[in-house]
Amino acid sequence: MQPPEGYPVPPGQVCRHKRSLYGLKQTSRQWNQEFTDKLQTYDFVQSSHDYCLFTKVTSLGLFALLVYVDDVLIAGPSEIEIQNIKQYLDELFTIKDLGSAKYFLGLELARSAQGLILTQTKYIKDLVSETGLSNARATTTPLPTGIKFSAGAGNPIAEPEQLSQFLQSPCQQHWDAAMHLVKYLKGTPYKVVALTAFSLDQPSSPGNQKAEHDITVNR
Fold this sequence. Notes:
Blueprint: H1 27-41, E1 45-46, E2 53-58, E3 61-68, E4 71-75, H2 79-93, E5 103-104, E6 107-112, E7 115-119, H3 121-130, H4 172-186, E8 192-196, E9 214-218
Parallel strand pairs: 8-9
Antiparallel strand pairs: 1-2, 2-3, 3-4, 5-6, 6-7, 7-8
């Protein structure tokens, strides 16, 4: 890195940056810390289980704020308070309000009078297309029955979500398993998660009138 033009630096001296510059190694950490500090000033509490989640409890109810780099999702029972939160953030960072969330990190969100529907149809179709498996036959399981993985002399594993452990030195068996998993997803693009406020113990509950591929989660 060179000092700005017209600003000579004597031998043995360096420039000290008082702001984090885009592209530097520390930039993302500095941004996250700055954003976290400002949210905590507004009485949001960072989750100890997931540092991307911030919550705030008021007399109006629970407000949740989910952060992924510079994408932010806000949920709460009061539209007025949500607007106050967005105004607070805009005064600090000049945000862009995209309105009600319809797509966030691969999740499609659809609202109805019964609750919230979450799907990953677009994400799955894009993934299948990118891996060249559009014409492949879908599988019925995430991994072949009885498959075991190992890295050198490591312990064997059989959990699909643990495939990421082999990103450093993947082998052909790991690639084959990943493609098998994509084929499984190919057969599940229309599976949804339905978030409702109804009890499944009530026969008249809309939560009971779910489609064949629905998974209902109640508060």
